[in-house]
Known about the structure:
Helix content: 10-25%
Structural class: alpha+beta
Distance between the termini: 63 Å
Oligomer: single chain
Largest sheet: 4 strands, antiparallel
Number of strands: 20
Shape: globular
Amino acid sequence: MTGSTRRDFSLATLALAAASLLPSAARAGQAPSPAGWSRAPDLPIRVQEIYPAVMGGRIYVTGGLSPDMAPEQLNISDRVFSWAPGEASWREEPRLPLPIHHPYGLEREGKLFAIGGFTAREGGRWSMSEVVHLLDPQTGGWRFGPQMPQPLAETVAINHEGTIHLVTGRRPSGFQNTEWPHHSDINAHLALSPGSDAWVTLPPAPTARNSAAGAAVDGRWHVIGGRTVSGGNTPVHEVYDFAANRWETLAPCPHRKRDRAGRAGSPPRRSAARCTSLAENGSTPRAAGSIPRSGPMTGPRTAGAKPPACPPRATASAPSRSAMRSTPSAARRRPAAARRPRRWRCSGRRADRRARRRV
């Protein structure tokens, strides 16, 4: 992601991952947490651009961008932390072989995968990688896993019955691979089966994008939202059926339309259709800057009915010159608040004549 739109990592992400661990904690004899949010231990460093993963009842955070890292490594972190519910602090794990941000964290067969991401190996902070790293808690160290056929980052991944699926994301669009404009969106779908050392290609997603989110429900993998390198955010919602090996496009996520200036949620301009909707619903226009709860044509329509004209704006009209001449000077004198400020550039009788004409 670009610097201006980076996702800040918050405790909300950790609490969401920790929620999946609560049932196992309850089975171990611990009292379940009450409903609602609670404060969890802070990470040892400030970090963002990460994909936490759950393995062995612990939350793992690998790499990322952090202002607490050395400037010579472009603030890219190689540190790894883990935490389990009930612990008072995070535990330091073996460091990554090199600093990486955006590595996708995933668990399979008791090993932690850190897939792809960005490094500084080519001199820029956004050098995309095709490397897969594996952390084995039994050996306590990192090693290389099956390398992807192409550099990939900001993808969506899932472990479905032992097979790792990757879909969409970004890859270099040419020979250059150091900055954001050097990348393009893809809709590729890769899979790594258990015991295999090679990625295979599966049917691609209908839409090329990056930074989407995914969740599996009833044997179907929902890939929702995301963005494109040049077009901004997207509301696309597509689902992959693991059994049928095919994609399907569902209704997109609801989103606010933008005005001509690119502002989201701006109130619509007044029009006859807007006045019709307000009159039929028996409501009044909202204040400027507020977000309407419904569109401009949500009210019931009557066949053949003409929309009423918009009420005219209350504006003060200036009196005519003839009315001014027939009215005594004291009565036609405008209030002080309505007068324009006087700036005289002359003096004497000429200034007096101009002053009398202005009032």
